[in-house]
Amino acid sequence: MPQCVNNLPIFNLAIESSCDDFSCSILKKDDLKISIISNVVYSQDFIHGIYGGVVPELASRNHIKSAIPAVDAALLQADIKLKDINLISVTSGPGLAGSLLVGIMTAKTLSYALKVPIAAVNHIEGHIFSPFLKREEFFPFVALVISGGHSHIYIVKSHEDIRLVGKTRDDACGEAFDKISNFLNYGYPGGKIIDTLAEKGDINAFNFSMPMEHSNSFDLSFSGLKTQVISEINKLGGPKQLRETIVFDIFACLRETIAKILYKKVLAVCDYTGIKDVSISGGVSANSRIRSIFLESSKLNALFPEPAYSTDNAAMIGYTGFFKKNIDPSKNKKIFYNLNAEPAWEL
Ligand code: KG4
Ligand code: ZN
């Protein structure tokens, strides 16, 4: 981790642009602690909502428009100047190539002009540590990352020792929420919409089976569940024929099934490893039923990020950037020039 020089704090400007949000955050590290002093997120939901999913080319073009205003807004909110920044952190993967490149080029330009180190951060690593943005960090823990592209379980023993133990074999759970919401014409992104409307439904109305419930592996799967839900809707006459109350029931049962299988798989990892602390992060971790099933459990200790830090944000990238080594471009030009988008970077 870069050290504070002469007891002066490190101001870290972080950029996240891996998908359809452009976020810039400023974090401060003094000898004792890391704090977030600003976090700006420019969402493009309203652009991609029309198409029912993210259009990569539109995402990168709109990031170009957001980049400088987001940096300016983050500096303004933090009440500091560019010259105060002494570290830059940026997401370099996984994600959409064009989107990542806009963030990386913004970060590299700032790093070059300000002559400050640049840390390349894995987006998933950012999510894993997001519950520690507002509480003290400790190890080991089990990490469940649930987002639009990920449903992954890791065992985390340190910042350098993160092991994947299970992942979805097909769709991510966020993808299942998004696709079912689209199918029923309830809008994109569907996770939050389904979460809200599920409150009005009956969790006993449908009996969706839990995917991979009886498998010995820690892997997950959500594509079959999506198909189950869609065939149930078709049996009832198709999306246009459904009464609103039936849609609410479907949403309640879908949310319940996803929450239960996630809990069950994570508990199996906890039982296997003896680890009780669990970080649950990524956009889907904002889900109220997923939160309650984990938080009410006496068998594990669930750690969630604040809802604002569940979905994509640069604060988690900055936090993780503090722990990167060999990031000074004046000492390691190769790292600086080789820093590129890594769309398929697996942890
Ligand atoms: O982490 P994230 O912001 O972006 C990715 O890295 O993918 O996650 C986005 C996903 C979307 O699938 C969205 O529908 C889902 O998070 N999401 C939710 C909720 N809020 C966002 N899913 C379930 N319940 C929510 N409350
Ligand atoms: Zn994410």
Total individual domains: 2
Strand element count: 10
Instruction: Give helix and strand order, one letter per element, not per position.
Output: EEEHHEHEHEEEHHHHEHEHH
Helical element count?
A: 11
Computed Rg: 21 Å
SS strand fraction: 15-25%
Class by SSE composition: alpha/beta
Average pLDDT level: 94
Uncertain regions spanning at least 5 consecutive residues: none
Question: Within the largest sheet, what's the order of strands?
Answer: 3-2-1-4-5
CATH structural architecture of the largest domain: 2-Layer Sandwich
The level 1 CATH classification of the largest domain is Alpha Beta
Shape: globular
Superfamily (CATH H level) name of the largest domain: ATPase, nucleotide binding domain
**CATH topology assignment of the largest domain:** Nucleotidyltransferase, domain 5
Major sheet: size, sense and barrel closure? 5 strands, mixed
Distance N to C terminus: 20 Å
Helix proportion range: 25-40%
Q: Compounds present?
A: 5'-O-[(R)-(carboxyoxy)(hydroxy)phosphoryl]adenosine, zinc ion
Can you put this structure into words, describing what you see?
The two termini are 20 Å apart. This protein has eleven helices and ten strands. It is α/β, with parallel strands linked by helices and 347 residues long. The strands form two sheets. A five-stranded mixed sheet has the order 3-2-1-4-5, sandwiched between helices. A five-stranded mixed sheet has the order 8-7-6-9-10, sandwiched between helices. 48% of the residues are buried. The chain has two domains: 10-129 and 311-338, 2-Layer Sandwich (Nucleotidyltransferase, domain 5); 137-305, ATPase, nucleotide binding domain (Nucleotidyltransferase, domain 5, 2-Layer Sandwich), CATH 3.30.420.40. Helix 5 (173-183) packs across helix 6 and helix 5 (173-183) packs parallel to helix 7. The chain has helices at residues 45-48, 56-78, 97-114, 123-129, 173-183, 190-198, 223-235, 244-273, 288-295, 315-321, 333-338; strands at 10-16, 21-29, 34-43, 87-93, 118-122, 141-146, 151-156, 162-167, 277-281, 301-303. The mean pLDDT is 94. The protein binds 5'-O-[(R)-(carboxyoxy)(hydroxy)phosphoryl]adenosine (KG4) and zinc ion.
